[in-house]
Automatic annotation (TrEMBL):
A Pfam entry, by short name: GFO_IDH_MocA
Transmembrane segments: none
Protein name per UniProt: Gfo/Idh/MocA family oxidoreductase
Keyword Coiled coil belongs to the record: no
InterPro entries cross-referenced by the UniProt entry: Gfo/Idh/MocA-like_OxRdtase_N, Gfo/Idh/MocA_oxidrdct_glycsds, GFO_IDH_MocA-like_dom, NAD(P)-bd_dom_sf
Organism: Paramicrobacterium chengjingii
KW Disulfide bond (keyword) present: no
GFO/IDH/MocA-like oxidoreductase domain residues: 130-248
Boundaries of every Gfo/Idh/MocA-like oxidoreductase N-terminal domain copy: 1-120
Keywords: NAD, Oxidoreductase
Length: 335
């Protein structure tokens, strides 16, 4: 499978390394608006072609699929253009910045008969996989509560400028970092959100929110709390899953622990290759979907993450809890 990488910043190196590791995939082309960045990534991929316009790459005949690794609001045209060219698509999270964009992407890939998956990397992180497998074993009983806390840094100058554009990014810390938290809280909570109460703070003279908190009520009755804090003195990325008979904590910085009746044990020890392992597993999942398999992350889930983010922003603006909409109908043809 010849894969074109659109956007060579941020996590591009992980995507490239994943393709180099898998025997049935290669990065055959790289596109970035910065020619030097595109050429560097193309060289790292083993001599791939480089482009500065994704449309030229799509039309080049050098790719069978694309990974869209660009600012959030750019996803729609890139995904739909690729689909119309008959190319399979893996798009980074968040899927889009509006539900209409999500639906248009799904429809375009469905009509073209190509695979579409969304890069929610949390589902492939070894610390989260270990936690999910243990919970699914039944030893701890049902999940009854989820608590998620992540630190980040949204001081201007700490990341690319587009992250601070409400139009390009669709928001700030909640849609970006909080998108991971919403994703994994819904995943471990085992249900769709039906109620959301959120608050946000804009610090550092930022146009987008730098900090935020979200309280979710899932349709199955489980409560989930999410906190994203910018530039704290202590860094954190901790997911607590409270079950009937024990608590699991998953953290990529320290691994995965479970505690039952005062005794704890390790489910997964942190390894320096954990993040790369996740990206490789994600790409393998994409290739499986291309071959007719079911995605690890359903499109309905990826769309719902965007829906929850948008309702969180509305809740924060209005100062009241919001009801999350009904489940969408997602075409089976688009997987």
């Amino acid at each position: 499978m010849r894969i074109g990488l659109i956007g060579a910043g941020a996590v591009a190196d992980y995507h490239i390394a994943a393709a180099l590791e898998l025997p049935n995939a290669s990065i055959s082309a790289v596109c970035d608006i910065d020619a030097v960045v595109a050429q560097r990534a193309a060289a790292a991929a083993g001599g791939a072609s480089s482009f500065t316009d994704y449309r030229d790459m799509i039309d080049s005949g050098t790719v069978d699929a694309v990974i869209v690794n660009t600012p959030h609001s750019f996803h729609l045209p890139m995904v739909t253009d690729a689909a119309r060219a008959g190319l399979h698509v893996l798009v980074e999270k968040p899927m889009a910045t509006t539900l209409d964009d999500c639906d248009a992407m799904i429809a375009a890939c469905d009509t073209a008969g190509v695979a579409l998956t969304v890069g929610h990397i949390q589902h492939f992180m070894p610390d989260k996989v270990a936690a999910k497998e243990h919970i699914d074993s039944g030893e701890l009983g049902d999940v009854v509560m989820v608590r998620d806390f992540r630190s980040t840094d949204y001081r201007p100058g700490t990341r690319s400028g587009w992250f601070f554009s409400p139009t390009v990014a669709g928001g700030g810390a909640l849609i970006n970092i909080g998108g991971h938290c919403i994703d994994r809280s819904l995943w471990f909570g085992g249900g769709r959100a039906e109620r959301v109460l959120a608050s946000t703070v804009n610090r550092f003279s930022s146009e987008v929110e730098t900090d935020g908190t979200i309280a979710l009520r899932l349709a199955n009755g489980i409560g989930a709390s999410i906190n994203v804090i910018s530039d704290p003195p202590l860094k954190a990325d901790s997911l607590f899953i409270v079950c009937e008979r024990g608590v699991v904590v998953a953290d990529p910085r320290s691994g995965t622990l479970v505690q039952v009746d005062g005794r704890s044990r390790v489910l997964h020890e942190r390894h320096p290759d954990d993040i790369q392992h996740a990206f490789t597993a994600q790409l393998a999942d994409f290739l499986d979907v291309i071959n007719g398999g079911r995605p690890t992350v359903p499109l309905s889930h990826a769309r719902h993450v965007v829906e929850v983010v948008l309702e969180s922003y509305r809740s924060a603006a209005e100062g009241v809890a919001r009801t999350v909409g009904a489940a969408p109908v997602v075409s089976a043809g688009a997987r």
